[in-house]
Write a structure and sequence with these properties.
Number of helices: 4
Strand content: under 5%
Number of strands: 0
Largest sheet: none
Structural class: mainly alpha
Order of helices and strands: HHHH
Shape: globular
Helix content: 55-70%
Distance between the termini: 18 Å
Length: about 80
């Protein structure tokens, strides 16, 4: 994945209409994401610093982990690593 523009991504996420998590849910999601990341490291698929920052920012914005993949796929142009206009 190319360098991620977190400011642009955060702006786009803030404009989306979805049910954001409560502080309690987000705390649990952080634990789940940390566990998933640890499993990726074990499998030698360590996320980049940019990827870690992107997922942390998404959690900061209350994005449920189950929604993260569809947001990412919906925002990035296939094959370009750029956020779609």
């Amino acid at each position: 994945m190319a360098q991620i523009n977190l400011d642009t991504l955060r702006e786009r996420i803030r404009s989306m209409d979805f049910e954001r998590g409560t502080p309690e849910q987000i705390a649990l999601w952080r634990e789940d994401v940390a566990e998933a990341r640890a499993n990726l490291v074990i499998e030698d698929m360590t996320p980049t610093g940019d990827e870690d920052a992107m997922f942390a920012m998404m959690l900061d914005e209350g994005v449920p982990p189950s929604l993260m993949p569809s947001i990412i796929l919906g925002l990035y142009k296939p094959g370009t690593h750029q956020i779609a206009a």
